[in-house]
Amino acid sequence: MELLAVFLPLLGFVIAGLFGEKLGHKGCQFVTCACVIIAAIVSVALFMDVIMGQDAYVTVLAPWVVSGDFTVSWALRIDQLSVVMMCVINIVSACVHVYSVGYMSHDKHRGRFMSYLGLFTFAMLMLVTADNLLQLFFGWEGVGLASYLLIGFWNQKKSANAAAQKAFVVNRVGDFGLALGMMAIYIVFGSIEFQVIFERASEMAESYFTLFGYEVHAMTAICMLLFVGAIGKSAQLGLHTWLPDAMEGPTPVSALIHAATMVTAGVFLVARMSPLFEYAPDALMVVTIVGACTAFVAATIGMTQFDIKRVIAYSTMSQLGYMFFALGVSAYGAAMFHLVTHAFFKALLFLGAGSVIHAMSDEQDMRKMGGIWKKIPVTYVMMWIGSLALAGIPPFAGYFSKDIVLEAAWADGTNFGHFAYWMGIAAAFMTAFYSWRLIIMTFHGKPRASNSVMSHVHESPAVMILPLVVLACGALFAGKVFYQGFVGSSSHHGDDHAVVAEHDEAHGVHEDVDHSETSEESHETLAYAVNMDHPSLSKEVFWKESIVVLPENDTVEAAHNVPKWVKYTPLAAGVSGIILAYIAYMFVTGLPAFVKSIFRPIHTLFFRKWFFDEIYNALFVRTSLMLGVLFWRKGDQGIIDRYGPDGIARISSKAGSSIGRFQSGFVYQYAFVMVIAVVAILSWFVFKGFDFGIEMPKVGGVE
Amino acid sequence: MDMLDFPLLNFVTFLPLAGALVIMLVIRGDGEIAARNSKLVALYTSLFTFAFSLFMFQNFDSSDAGFQFEVQSSWLKPFGINYHLGVDGISIFFILLATFLTPVCILSSWDAIKVRVKEFMIAFLVLETFMIGTFCALDAVLFYVFFEGVLIPMFLIIGVWGGPRRVYSSYKFFLFTLLGSVLMLVGLLVLYAMTGTTDIPLLMQADLPFDVQKWLWIAFFASFAVKMPMWPVHTWLPDAHVEAPTAGSVILAGVLLKMGGYGFLRFSIPMLPDATAYFTDFVYILSVIAIIYTSLIALVQDDMKKLIAYSSVAHMGFVTLGIFTITQQGVEGAIFQMLSHGIISGALFLCVGVVYDRLHTREISRYGGIVQNMPKYATVFMILMLGSVGLPGTSGFVGEFLVLLGAFQSNTLIAALAATGVILGAAYMLMLYRRVVFGPREHHDALSMPDLNSREMWLLIPLVAMVLWFGVFPNQVMNKISPSVERLIAEYNDKLNGQIHDAENIGQE
Question: Which candidate from B194, B293, B398 shows the least CB-CB separation from A698?
Fold first, then answer.
């Protein structure tokens, strides 16, 4: 069954890619949509199985790379973590597939577009179902490729091509870290199979190995390197510059890849590797700080941008920051929870923005929008739902997940946790502010677009609205439904820890289903399946051993017991952000300009995105090109050639002229010279060699 | 096995030479018919050779780490020099690579070569015999003859059918390789003098004093490093590629560059283990410089062939790095990387040839936006580009990753520095692709180029399919390489560790 869920999108890609011309656009759209919808249904079924108490299992497909004691197979690992991701990926992907049928209906290459979406979905599924780091890396780079192809989909646009290349290369920097991390794991553990690594994690907790000449704590080094990969893929501060530029791609792509799924791969990676991260507190600290800073910085930039998609892109980056600091305080369940709810409401926001752009004749600048809410009411409502979820207003999904993330950060109790909490609160305020800034600028006020554009404003067709509705349901209910399972407290049945611990041991090898597992538990889980909201369902029961948290690090548990004000401050920040946006953009419309004029330097810093692009350009891009020219002109031509072959030619002018004659010669002449030379050399060798041989002592196998 | 009665390896090695003789002796005149006939003879000869090599591969026993299909007869008997051929897991795939790429090259020059067609085909078939011979020679002298003999037809192919600066290029090519071959010759002399044999399997058993090993190692290194080519003796390669006709570039990048790496595996490591250990860091540093330095140069190239040529030097940097880690992963990765690079870079040069045949320029800025009129070409080029970048799922990834994994085990810093080449590799290849295939419609002549014709499709599709197939199922190659590599490494380590012990034994005798 897992084969269907993973390989159907690949099938769609191959069929639409190879036979696109024969199938026609309709055919491609049908095939790819059908494949991914079936895959989505199958993954929901897999999810239900796992809820019902199905144990984790691995399906081995074929050997991949085998070299000495390094063996890696193509294999699908189905456990709690991967089925959650599979559901998110396939459901959002199915929505985006269907939506694209409408959104791309005027594009000449829509068949190719659909096939790329299929490729992306497949690669992402391979990433999350990987049973070893190498296959994860395959998916990791595969989604990078799909992202590259889709960002640059409109390949006549120079800016799109540049953005695509930037995304790929910047991601490669992250991949560099991930690859080194993988190698370090192989050195330390002797394997890169999850099973082996996770089992041995605790015994290797205090091991050291030599990296770059220094003796370093193995776990910290490994986790830091892996985290570099996550920084790149999830656009965290430092390697985030590609994400805003990636908005050059068609909007469905931004929704699927650059909001809901691919950019969360870094979060998934850290959650998946939680058994290692738990033994690397220093690495976790770095994750917390990077995540908190990203959440804050991205929100500051988001407040100043005018491109509707870029605003949402920065908000994505900011929300990913939340997920990372949740991971950093060991609240993996909370991070995954936010990942799931975010996937729904952010995809909804992006597709809603796409619907707006579609209505506004491909206009993306919010300064040229306004006054259209009555003309596209459904889209307007959808954007409201998405924004409410994003701002963390109850009962929308974002409220549950964002609150538990912030509470866990506070409950961590360390300075870094508190730092993350306050950064998160500040970001929550700004998030609400720019979300309503977006809504008001886009939908309200006087129309600022030209009359011809305004006369064309229309609600999107059903094929685009339907996916929005599906996602809106997610944005509405995903929080409430999954709360107990993803982050729920186990305080109702305190001995669960023991059960889980037992479970861990019993499942040393859980490649196949073990029915002898405590039967009462499966009865219980049967009950949860009927209602995920069941009060006795808790995070331990749900995640089982797919996420490992050391008892002393269990911040999600502690998050349920934080002071009341910690629980309510995020909501207050959100509400006040919304109110401020109304004041600034609806009632006192001169306020933004006034504030801008007072805090000009700060505004410039935010508006110019903290100058990351400029600094990187000077530091890396231009330096590389300069070095390239230097090595080429001065190194190769100026030194090696000048004193090498050219020098020899110059030294004897005679040689120069003889070469001149050589040039004009016949082909046979060359051959003749070469043959003579070889024969001469050979005969010299034969005779000289014989003489030589007598004088020298003989060693080794001789007759 | 009745296979042993039939000297299959002789047959595979010399069939192309026979074909060349047929063209030379039977086909008369310079007219169109003569040209056509020589093309056909060359094509069929190379196809039969490929078929025979496949047959050999079918009968290759992958559990046997030693040499198979051995053919032996005395040649220069008084000196103990034998005619001795054989293949093992290390060499079999190089032979297949040569026999596979030769018909591809002949087909690719079907229309591109217009003058001296007959001579071109002769040169190519002779080249094939020399290439195969290099990889299966088990006698050092024989190896030397083939190894250096390869240069003659290659030199001709560049010098006669090359571009406008072909003379400078072939002069440079000649000068660099001459330096290497003279030193290697001296090395062989000494080796023979020390051991009294030129038989490679026997030489592998020899134990040479460390001082001698050091000098021999340098002598061999000079020759192999030029052929690889390693930094700083790489500057002949970009020029040679730029001036060579398409088929020449394909075979140069595809097979000739692998001869250096093969040489390291056949001579330096098994025969000179102490010196190899001694010079490991030196090779590491040169490899890393090659990877970073040439990748940076590739970033600023305006000529497609030069860019790919520089990228080849960088990829060969991974190969030397991998070989000298002397770990299972490193060496297997290096071999796999050589095979994969042979296919990918060969195919990339074919791709350059496709557009060069249409527009007669290799300047990147003269193209742009051709995905619109050449979608099939764009797809093929894309997959090859991704292979070159080392995307997982293509053959380029497996070799690169294993090399880095091997390197990481012996020196983390070197591995990390080499891995930056992977980032730079993505930058220059994507830049090339973006500027040639994507972009706005600017040049009308580039936009009116027709897409791949069926001959070009049939040439490129097998190559593309192999890039993908061996990316997903590399084990089909790896498991045949493994036993021989395992033995190579085991013997190397035995020799290093057992040095003192062995010396005692010899003393007792």
Answer: B194
